[in-house]
Amino acid sequence: MMKTVGPGPRAEETPEPLLSVRNLCVTYRTDSGSVPALDQLSFDLHAGETLSIVGESGSGKSAASLAMMGLLPPNAVVEGSVRFRGRELLDLSDKKLREVRGKRIAMVFQDALAALNPMMTVGAQLAEAVSVHDSSASRAALRERAVELLDLVGIPSPRSRSDQYPHELSGGMRQRVMIASGIANEPDILIADEPTTALDVTVQAQILDVLMRIQDRTKSAILLITHDLGVVAGLADRVLVLYCGRKMEEAPVEPLFYEPAHPYTRGLLAALPRIDRGTRRLAQIAGQPPSPGERPGGCPFQTRCPHADERCDVIPRPVRVGENHTAACVHAHEIERVTP
Amino acid sequence: MTAPALTVEGLVAEYTTGRRGWGAQTLQAVSGVDLVIPQGTTLGLVGETGCGKSTLGRCLVRLIDPAEGRVKLFDTDITSARRRDLAAVRRRVQFVFQDPYASLNPKLTVHAALAEPLRIHGLHRGREGARVKELLELVGLDPRHGHRHPHQFSGGQRQRIGIARALAVEPEVLILDEPVSALDVSVQAGVINLLADLQEELRLTYLFIAHDLAVVRQISDQVAVMYLGRIVEQGPADTIFTQPRHPYTQALLSAVPVPDPRIQRARRRIVLDGDLPSPLSPPSGCRFRTRCWKAQDVCAHTAPELSEQGGSLVTACHFPAPPAQPTAQNQHKEVTAP
């Protein structure tokens, strides 16, 4: 029998989630009409865990994180609910939100050069990040804290580095400074939006190591937003797969990779070239992702899905396919689930 | 043996930084590279940002004039070709860039963009329209969409247009500089498969420049690994990926995440310390020695030459890993450069 669960697929878990997102919708108003970016996203994030949101361009993964942080541009309409320790964030005034943002929930962006202030030394920026939330600290204490943070993220000779400007640092170093700034106030949640996408693989390995070390130390929950399934395989405890603004599948990391239930997840995994395998013909996903204005009604993946039929014209509800594992597909129980 | 389609000998490429006379410095982006690509095969050229792989690609069609060395297309010397002869050479060697949106003229319809090279080279006179339709079909696009502009296509479709434009003049060699890096996984696979099909159908020779090693393994027959302007290791793709001997290749491969949680979490990774040294003042001797955990005195004095390791693998290292050592994939000790 098919059993469907509502928007809260982890309802069976007892501990209160740190972050609880329900029916989050983001729509951009533009001159040529409204463009949906995120549609009815619900999930929970628990203390200390790493949840990965995976998706391709236009899947809405960045819109989700920006909405939670109240960082979307004014033409974005946000609906739904984002509760942090039971407190609704979407209703908070800017002033109140600022107390949460950067202190309890911090963010690491992809492009460190754009996110860092080019006119301030990295030490001064880190000191600022601390002093915004702790005005009592003395200048000397702030300076020490900045050096300590740089050391924590593995920057060699942190004292002299703290007097340098962002342009004097390499890309990997700048990303470490971003992480240092994110963890400056020991947040409960660190949102990392494509933290290694602009970096070379050897530098990516260094940065991912830093993130894992930091998490061991601070016990922060990490919301890792990425398109790279290799990074997800190495770091995530649980995974959310988005496509065209909708959640396709949610599962703990191993079931997601070894028993994916949604045709989109299966297609993605089969299309990946892998460094540990020789040449084989890659499985292609037919067609192209629809542009936001051209998304079909019902399941957004139906235009490319090998299993699509008339039942897909209705927006599919998440179907429970395993423990803490749901797939938004009416065919989820019919598809043979073997590792792609 | 198939004839080499492209032969590169002792290639050196330099840039001058700063203003002449005002602290101008010479940056050597490519420092003596030799390559041979047999016809109908793919050489994957990998390396991280700033290793010189794109500069090398551009030298091959003289978008950049090399400072030293020779490039040969079959028997034609490209490096000494005069201006007029160069046009003929460039018809035979075409380029596909990473970002087709930047390399396609936004004001031209796809039809016009594909007909332009035909006109320039005087090909298919009088039947350009038919040829454009053929080209669109060849790369898996709807021939009825020729009247559209680049912005009306998705990223994957635009890259197919970029490939069609390169193929319009019936080249023998394609230089593909990060051709799928900007594409999402679900469309990337289609473009990779297309490139493989086209190679077989048209007997094309590829130089495939990329930083994504999984993609390179998928498409390449041979792989060359570059570090700071030099090739440090080169050989058959399978050998490079399963039995690399150069410490840099080993570190590079071990850093690539595998999309499989159990395998990825069990892998021992070699995490390199530090950053790439400035190419303005590369380290003496072996350029990798500042980040290498095996470095000894000799590495600072003598630059290692590429030497035969058996099985057509060549490695430039004074202390290459012994051949018996298993792959970098799964069984490496965790080592961190001092």
Q: How does this structure look, described?
A:
The complex is a heterodimer of chains A (340) and B (338). Chain A contains eleven helices and twelve strands. Residues 1-13 of chain A have low confidence and may be disordered. In chain A, helix 5 (139-152) crosses helix 7. The two termini of chain A are 25 Å apart. Chain A has helices at residues 61-69, 94-100, 112-115, 122-133, 139-152, 158-161, 171-182, 201-218, 229-235, 253-258, 263-271; strands at residues 19-30, 33-45, 50-54, 76-84, 87-88, 105-108, 189-193, 221-226, 238-243, 246-252, 319-322, 325-327. Chain B contains twelve helices and twelve strands. At the A-B interface, helix 7, helix 8, helix 9, helix 10 and helix 11 of A face helix 6, helix 7, helix 8, helix 9 and helix 10 of B.
What is the count of β-strands of chain A? 12
Report the β-strand fraction of chain B as a percent range: 15-25%
Most residues in contact, chain pair and counts: A-B, 47 and 50 residues
The main sheet of chain A comes to:
8 strands, mixed
Major sheet attributes of chain B: 8 strands, mixed
Structural class of chain B: alpha/beta
How far apart are the termini of chain B?
A: 44 Å
User: Helices and strands of chain B, in N-to-C order?
Assistant: EEEHEEHEHHHHEHEHEEHHHHEE
Low-confidence stretches of chain B: 326-338
Helices and strands of chain A: which structural class? alpha/beta
Q: Distance between termini of chain A? A: 25 Å
Strand order of the largest sheet of chain B: 6-7-8-3-9-10-12-11
Rg calc of chain A? 21 Å
Element-by-element helix/strand order of chain A: EEEHEEHEHHHHHEHEHEEHHEE
Poorly predicted parts of chain A? 1-13
Mean pLDDT of chain B: 90
The amount of helix of chain B comes to 25-40%
Residue share in β-strands of chain A: 15-25%
How does the overall form of chain B come out from the CA principal axes? globular
Q: Short description, anyone?
A:
Chain A is an alpha/beta fold and about 350 residues long.
